[in-house]
Amino acid sequence: MDEWLKIIGALGGLEAIRFTVTFLANRKTNARKEKATADSMELQNLLSIIDNLNKQIERYDERLKQRDEKVDTIYREWRTAQAEAQNWMRKYYELELALKDAEHNRCDRPDSECSRRTPPRRPITINNQNKKESNE
Question: How far apart are CA 135 and CA 130, in angstroms?
Answer without folding.
Answer: 9
